[in-house]
Write a structure and sequence with these properties.
The protein is built from eleven helices and 18 strands. The chain is α+β, with helices and mostly antiparallel strands. The protein has two domains: 160 residues, Gcn5-related N-acetyltransferase (GNAT) (Aminopeptidase); 194 residues, Hypothetical protein (Archaeosine Trna-guanine Transglycosylase, Chain: A, domain 4, Roll), CATH 2.30.130.
Length: 371
């Protein structure tokens, strides 16, 4: 999963300037103890070993830096007890620059890490951090990590286990999908918006372009907001949906419109119904900020002109990737698409149908869906 989409890329530590001011806080937090080496010595050692990091960079330098230790089978030493050896991935370093606080870069980086963990099929993934890193701890707790105690260096140890996934909430369940649900459905998104919102859902021979300045936060985060003009809400919280990229160009859509991704619905509400305002524009802006592709002007136009305005919040759980996306023709031929006169968002897919589509998209269903 060494992707360069969305501003993240894997780089060798030997290619990274340790003198970048980004690393100053890590040098202060980890000067070295009798139990572990300092950050600078650790960095230089891992650079010599050829270790890589997941890095987000901009014109000011490094904005995020994540290092994983894979094939971890060591016991975890805690104060008062020892966790036995188990196949684990360790998040050795996870740091986001203060200038990106609130920009959802951390959420996106954690998503990449958890996708990698899922695909490697290790039993657990864990991270250690000092208690003062409150925003970071909040992020890990939201995604289902559990505080298991302190290590000998005084760091809190947070573990997420695939043997004990909390399926009651889409975030704690991520990157897995709860198997027992009533039905799945489709969310239809125009290609011009889709390619920024769902940055990892690549299409063959398709060059991505950032639609507007909101794109950075929208494409890097895992939480997405769909704004539509439906008079009814056809989605249910904690149930899956398939993201359908609607081709808006010339020519046949049967082969160019396709399912690219799958999400879990995390929230739904109507801001307007039959021209009756149910949510003020200011409140609506506050709710969907940094999660929807529309800028304030576009959102205002929709708010004022749409008779009905429906909001669906989604958690981006996975994607098929270039060459694996499923076009409308296949969906129709296999009975998974709307019947004549029926709009696709009204389609209710059974669990078996949803899994069949995932399998056609190259997804290892047994590694994704948990009952």
């Amino acid at each position: 999963m060494e992707m360069t989409v969305s501003g993240f890329e894997y780089k060798r530590l030997s290619e990274i300037d340790i003198e970048d001011p980004f690393f100053d806080s890590l040098k202060r937090d980890y000067p070295g103890t009798e139990n572990s080496s300092g950050f600078t010595d650790w960095f230089k050692k891992k650079a010599q070993e050829g270790r890589k990091a997941l890095v987000f960079e901009d014109e000011y330098g490094i904005g995020a830096f994540i290092v994983l230790k894979e094939d971890e089978k060591e016991a975890i030493e805690l104060e008062g007890r020892t966790l036995p050896e188990k196949e684990r991935i360790k998040i050795s370093t996870f740091r986001v620059s203060e200038r990106y606080q609130g920009k959802r870069i951390g959420e996106g980086a954690l998503g990449l890490v958890l996708w990698k963990w899922r695909d490697r099929a290790a039993r657990e993934i864990y991270v250690t951090t000092f208690a003062k890193q409150k925003s970071l701890i909040s992020l890990f707790l939201r995604f289902g990590f559990v505080n298991c105690g302190q290590n000998k260096d005084g760091e809190e140890v947070f573990i997420k286990s695939r043997d004990n996934v909390d399926l009651s909430d889409p975030y704690t369940a991520f990157p897995f999908v709860r198997g027992r649900f009533s039905h799945a459905g489709y969310v239809i998104i125009d290609d011009t918006y889709h390619d920024t919102m769902f940055a990892y859902s690549e299409l063959a021979n398709n060059k991505k372009e950032l639609k507007n300045k909101l794109g950075l936060s929208v494409r890097n985060g895992l939480t997405k907001v769909y704004v539509g003009g439906s008079a009814t809400i056809d989605y249910y919280v904690n149930e899956p949906v398939l993201i359908y990229r609607k081709y808006t160009g010339e020519g046949s859509k049967q082969y160019r419109s396709c399912v690219t991704s799958y999400c879990i619905v995390t929230n739904t509400f109507q801001a307007k119904r039959n021209n009756r305002v149910l949510q003020s524009f200011e409140k609506l802006k506050e709710i969907i900020t940094n999660k929807a592709i529309f800028n304030e002007e576009e959102l205002k136009r929709q708010y004022e002109s749409y008779r009905d305005l429906t909001i669906v919040e989604l958690l981006y759980c996975g994607y098929f990737g270039a060459g694996n996306n499923i076009n409308m023709k296949w969906l129709k031929n296999n009975g998974f698409w709307a019947k004549s006169g029926e709009y696709p968002t009204k389609v209710h897919l059974s669990g078996e149908q949803f899994q069949s589509i995932l399998k056609e998209g190259g997804v290892n269903v047994s590694n994704i869906i948990i009952n």
